[in-house]
Design goal:
Blueprint: E1 8-18, H1 20-27, H2 35-45, E2 62-74, H3 83-86, E3 87-94, H4 101-104, H5 106-120, E4 123-126, H6 129-143, H7 149-152, E5 172-174, H8 175-180, H9 190-196, H10 210-215, H11 219-243, H12 249-267, H13 274-288
Parallel strand pairs: 1-4, 4-5
Antiparallel strand pairs: 1-2, 2-3
């Protein structure tokens, strides 16, 4: 279980695909080989089989194509606000401009996110974030030559400041670690723990689909899928925070209402109607549980 709940939390998720450039450089493949063939070669060298055509690749061999985060900020009790106004939720994602090649570049996606984290210093919450999401952001920042000193800064002593790299730090909460500990057999997937809790899991798309979506230029679908995972991570965390006593019964009900209203309001904005699909699935699952 996590040890603290900060006033500002970012529930984040990353999407990545095999990097054709990495395949060409490491395996001396000529530029005449298509990106699709490079990806097949990378999976082949990782032990692809008919049953598992896309085996796991080291994150360093992959490029980040999207990052989504639900930002949660809580006003202090001294603000004397009604309970439903104390918690503010805001959904953000990268790339912001899906039509702009620079916005879609990995350097822009990774650099924008980790520099924003370094500036705002939120508590990060993810699912398998300690072993995967935070690791790939750091690795690919190195590869892209990104400078992010505020994100990388570490205190001399763990209790003296924000530290996203310490295994014992509560500034990067990995919900999979909390739920599964160190036993791989006991660790549930985000989809499993979410659906069994009446929360939307994977809808129509899974992680295995992202590479083909990226190859086909389906950026919008990738971003929508990424946002869904960030929203699900938040709702799972909310249950765990309620379980741990960080949020009372009343606060738990109120925050779910705040989240619902946020989805409805955001869905009215151009290009965000996909959020209603998430809300409808949440209502359906809650009715079954």
């Amino acid at each position: 279980m996590f040890k603290s709940v900060k006033d500002q939390i970012w529930f984040f998720d990353c999407e990545w695909v095999p990097d054709p450039k990495a395949g060409r450089l490491l395996y001396n493949l000529p530029s005449s080989v298509s990106d699709e063939e490079v990806l097949k070669e990378m999976w082949s060298r990782a032990g692809a089989t008919e049953d598992n055509p896309q085996p796991f690749l080291k994150t360093v061999l992959c490029r980040v194509v999207s990052v989504a985060a639900l930002m949660r900020k809580v006003a202090p009790a001294s603000a004397n606000l009604p309970e439903e106004e104390r918690v503010k939720l805001h959904l953000l994602w990268l790339p912001r401009d899906l039509e702009d090649a620079e916005s879609r570049s990995e350097a822009s996606i990774v650099g924008t996110f980790i520099n924003a984290v370094g500036k705002c210093k939120p508590q990060l919450v993810g699912f398998n974030s300690r072993a995967s999401d935070l690791k790939i952001l750091f690795q690919r920042a190195v590869i892209n030559g990104i400078s992010a000193p505020e994100f990388c800064s570490r205190p001399d002593k763990p209790w003296e400041g924000v530290d996203y790299f310490s295994k014992d730090s509560d500034w990067n909460v990995d919900l999979m670690d909390c739920l599964g500990g160190w036993s791989g057999r006991s660790a549930p997937s985000l989809h499993e723990v979410a659906v069994l809790s009446g929360i939307p899991g994977k809808m129509d798309v899974s992680g295995d689909d992202v590479a083909s979506m990226w190859m086909s230029g389906r950026w919008r679908e990738i971003v929508e899928y990424n946002c869904y995972d960030a929203l699900t991570t938040y709702l799972v965390w909310l249950r765990m925070a309620h379980l741990g006593g960080y949020i009372s019964d009343e606060e738990y009900e109120t925050e779910q209402m705040v989240f619902t209203n946020m989805l409805i309001e955001e869905a009215e904005k151009p290009g965000l109607a996909f959020l209603l699909k998430y809300l409808n699935e949440w209502n359906r699952l809650e009715g079954m549980c």
